[in-house]
Specification:
This protein has 502 residues and is an alpha+beta fold. Helix content is 28%, strand content 41%. It has nine helices and 22 strands. Strands 14, 15, 16, 17, 18, 19 and 20 form a seven-stranded antiparallel β-sheet that branches. Strands 10-11-1-13-22-21 form a six-stranded antiparallel β-sheet. Strands 2, 3, 4, 5, 6 and 7 form a six-stranded antiparallel β-sheet that branches. A hairpin with a 5-residue loop joins β6 and β7. It is elongated.
Length: 502
């Protein structure tokens, strides 16, 4: 019995492993070179956040000396050394070493009956900040900073004094500087935690997860699993599935080859499997838009003459409907299939073409129903953040669904129908694909110098990155506008502290 159970488990194990690991339709790899660019923009963002640190007022008493330090403001930052690197399995590590922070604050001193007021310039040197960001997939399938670990320290702090009681302040500098050093170091990590868990996550919210492409279909870019981080790369596996808007919950199983990215030379790589393109064509097919109808004057004149000559006998028997307008209905009969090879990308399409006469006020009369098989070459390219596809007709064949004899009779229509596809149908298709579909990147980040490489079953796009918008600009764009209270507070503001009450 036990042996039978073991054999059953061994039999089911490969299936269980496959079921638990859904292959991605789209995969993105960010390399160390891409992370270096992110570090430059991130460093500017950290400087802005640290400059906005709010330090509590400092009050103290030493004998007959009472001191009050207020209006602490960061004046300048010098971040001498910074580093941003990957840390397996899900982390980014950001270090700042030997930085300096210049401060300015207001002082108040009371010694017996002597009162002094002025400002103090201080400098915090040897500032070290170590932060570890944990990346994860949230419930909606979006990349998020799920946790942050932060440690900050200040090696030393100096203060310069001026005014009538400068010697007194120098005597009290130990108490003041020690207090300010403690308060400042306690504010660094909370500031960076808010910047990461709130502000940077608001930037990640701009990555499209499930959105509409056009009026017919949408795309699901939800993450399938947590990001995989190595010492040199960060890999993101996206579902990459299109869906018809009329059936948003429809799922299409992914049996395609999983994209494999081995390169690390460029800043970023994006890989798309055949499933990515197949799901787009399947969604359009399910939406019922892979069809076109040409009637009357929309039928090219040369083709109309040829069709009337080809079906002359049938038309002649329909008198008085001989002069009735022609109608051509081209309908895709099954979802097109994408084939990606190292030599190129192609799309196979099966369709049928119905040719009818449409007498005014009478039912349409079908002249012929023929099957069509076409192979399109696909040029895939990336422009900005939009993936675009341009199609061209490579091979075309028509045949009768009724008999081989009729297929032979249709041979003369092969060339003119191919011309119809090239001059009329293909421009309409390419106009629809011209807009493209957005790649899942945050707002303000774009691709440059893209290079497309075909593989067996998938293609990759290697590119560099650049920021068209700064992090601060994107954050401010989506920051919620504070709403004013419905009823203003009637409580008066607290009066400022009287120095003689210190």
């Amino acid at each position: 019995m036990a042996a039978g159970s073991c054999r059953l488990l061994l039999f089911l194990l490969p299936w269980l492993v496959t079921a638990s690991h859904s292959p991605p339709g789209c995969k993105i790899r960010i390399t160390s070179k891409g992370l270096d660019l992110v570090k430059e923009e991130g460093l500017r963002f950290v400087e802005q956040e640290l400059q906005n640190i709010t330090v509590s007022d400092l009050h103290g008493k030493e004998g007959q000396f009472h001191y009050n330090i207020t209006q602490v403001k960061v004046m300048d930052l010098q971040l001498a050394f910074s580093d941003l690197h990957f840390q397996p399995q899900q982390h980014l590590v950001f270090n700042i070493k030997n930085a300096s922070i210049s401060l300015r604050f207001r002082r108040q001193l009371l010694y017996w009956f002597f009162y002094d007021i002025g400002s103090i310039n201080a400098s915090a040197d040897g500032v070290h900040i170590h932060t570890v960001l944990q990346l994860a997939k949230d419930e909606a399938g979006r990349l998020k900073i799920s946790n942050i670990t932060c440690n900050a320290s200040i090696a030393r702090m100096h203060a310069g004094f001026s005014g009538t009681l400068r010697k007194v302040y120098e005597f009290l500098s130990t108490f003041i500087v020690t207090g300010m050093r403690f308060l400042l170091s306690q504010q660094i990590c909370p500031s960076l935690e808010h910047a990461s868990l709130v502000l940077l996550n608001s930037v990640l919210d701009t990555v499209p997860v499930r959105n509409y492409v056009d009026e017919h279909i949408g795309i699901d870019y939800s993450l399938l699993r947590d990001p995989a981080v190595s010492t040199d790369t960060l890999d993101l596996d996206f579902k990459g599935m299109f869906f018809p808007r009329a059936r948003e919950n429809q799922e299409l199983e992914n049996h395609a080859v999983e994209p494999v990215i081995k390169e690390t030379e460029r800043m970023v790589y994006v890989a798309f499997s055949e499933y990515f393109f197949d799901s787009a064509m399947h969604a359009y097919f399910q939406a019922g838009v892979l069809a076109i109808e040409l009637q009357g004057e929309k039928v090219p004149k040369d083709l109309e003459v040829l069709l009337r000559a080809t079906f002359f006998g049938t038309i002649f028997m329909l008198s008085p409907a001989v002069d009735a307008p022609l109608r051509l209905v081209l309908q895709v009969s099954a979802p097109p299939r994408c084939i990606i090879k190292p030599s190129g990308t192609s799309v196979s399409v099966s369709a049928f073409l119905n040719i009818s006469l449409v007498p005014p006020g009478r039912p349409a009369v079908q002249l012929s129903s023929m099957a069509m098989e076409t192979k399109l070459s696909a040029k895939v390219f990336l422009q900005g953040k939009a993936l675009r596809v341009q199609l061209d007709l490579r091979r075309f064949r028509i045949y009768s669904k009724q008999s081989a004899l009729e297929s032979l009779a249709l041979f003369s229509l092969q060339a003119p129908l191919k011309t119809l596809l090239q001059l009329t149908i293909m421009p309409l298709i390419n106009e629809r694909t011209k807009k493209g579909v957005q790649i899942p990147l945050p707002e303000g980040m774009d691709f440059t110098k893209e290079v497309v490489t075909n593989h067996a079953g998938f293609l990759t796009v290697g590119a560099d990155l650049h920021f068209s918008k700064g992090l601060r600009e994107v954050i401010e764009k989506y920051r919620p506008v504070p709403t004013a209270p419905a009823y203003p507070s009637s409580q008066p503001a607290e009066p400022s502290v009287d120095p003689h009450q210190l």
